[in-house]
Amino acid sequence: MAFNPLNWILGFFSLDIGIDLGTANTLVYVRGKGIVINEPSYVTIDKKTRRPIAVGREAKEMAGRTPKNALAIRPLRDGVISEFEITEEMLAYFIGKAHEQSIVPLPRPRVVIGVPTGVTEVEKRAVNDAALLAGARAVYLIEEPTASALAVGLPLDKVSGTVIIDIGGGTSEVTAFSMGGVITSKSLRMGGDEMDLAVVQYIRNKYNILISERAAEQVKIKIGSAYPLKEEKTMTVRGRNLVSGLPETLEISSIEIRDAISGVVDSIVQSFKETIDEIPTDMLGDVMDSGICMSGGGSLLQGLDERFSEELHIRCWVADDALTCVARGAGLVLEDLEAYRHLLLQLD
User: What is the CATH number of the domain that holds 96?
Assistant: First the structure.
């Protein structure tokens, strides 16, 4: 690429940023400032022109309420880009928003982006190209569990090894590290979104009432659990009766929601069991001593750490500020790019 003096000058004054480009939420970490953006990965577009009308939190508020000429969509599915041009627009918006207090009119930052474990070359290239077109002057990719482990401060370079579980909206991942490398890893294209859909389906099948995915997400957050609660809860939810077509209010319990999402939780647990089976026996004892760290928004489901601890026979614990781990880890890489370069993904 030819040297561009203007890009070099703009890049010099731009802010280096780490991005967790998640299926459910996008978080942006600015070097020296911390997390400056945490908004839903939603874009509302004009159906005819495909141009953005709103991005982030404002776009999510429009979901289910847009006029005929507009559509609120999520440009990422299962942790990867499904709508390239719209993802580019969303990234450009967030990069610009992160620089609102900056003197740079056209920011050209270095960007580190977290991606799911096991992404294909096509998927990696899509993220890289979208970020470059959105204004980044250099793009680096890092696997989400690795970024989370860095943010938590896990000893990735130790011989004893360490394990982290990262659960997001579209993916659930587990990775075992030792001596600065990956021993084994597994990624499941399943996470919080599937739990929301399971709640919608459960209420539809049992009560003949249709609720929105947004309502299901709120139910999951407030009373959802993966393990019996000391004190079970109830919550009121509104939807449409599929027989009468009229609105209806329903009171649902945490026991029912636990039953609704049990299939998704079981699938995640089983997948992670298979990965634990692949950890070398000599390393397994060390992991049992240190426990398994859990990160990502999905790890905040009530009782999930208890469920994993019981099923895996290893103590599992939730990281502090689990939702922001990927973004903070991506930002940490920018503090010493050369030191962490061996953890970055390469484009073929």
Answer: 3.30.420.40
| Residue pair 296/319 in contact by the 8 Å Cβ criterion | no
CB neighbours of residue 32 within 10 Å: 10
Tell me if residue 198 falls in helix, strand or coil: helix
Distance CA 339, CA 334 (A): 10
Q: What H or E segment, with its residue span, contains residue 150?
A: helix 144-152
Q: What Rg value do the Cα atoms of the chain yield, rounded? A: 21
Q: What are phi and psi of 54, to 5 degrees?
A: -155, 155
Establish if 28 belongs to a structural domain: yes
> Cα(171)–Cα(267) distance, rounded to whole angstroms?
12
Adjacent-strand bridge partners of 140: 112
Taking only the tens place, the pLDDT of each residue in 251-291 is: 999 999 999 999 999 999 998 998 888 888 888 888 999 99
Per DSSP bridges, beta strands 25-30 and 34-40 are antiparallel
Domain assignment present for 341: yes
Domain extent at residue 97: 5-146+327-345
Domain tally for the chain?
A: 1
Q: What is the tens place of the pLDDT at every residue in 311-337?
A: 999 999 999 999 999 999 999 999 899
41-77 confidence digits (pLDDT tens): 999 999 999 999 999 999 999 988 888 899 999 999 9
Helix residue ranges, H only, 208-340: 213-223, 254-277, 281-290, 304-312, 325-333, 337-340
Task: Return the closest-CA partner of residue 325 out of 175, 174, 166.
Answer: 166
pLDDT of 11-20, one tens digit each? 445 689 999 9
Distance between CA 89 and CA 69 in Å, rounded?
19
**Strands laid side by side in the 17-21 sheet:** 34-40, 25-30, 17-21, 110-115, 138-143, 344-345
- Which residues have a Cβ under 8 Å from the Cβ of 200 and sit 6 or more positions away? 210, 211, 212, 213, 216
Tell me whether residue 9 is in a domain. Answer: yes
Integer Cα distance of 158 and 217 in angstroms: 39
Q: What is the value of pTM for the model shown?
A: 0.90
How many other β-carbons are positioned within 10 Å of the β-carbon of residue 162? Answer: 23
**97 within some domain:** yes
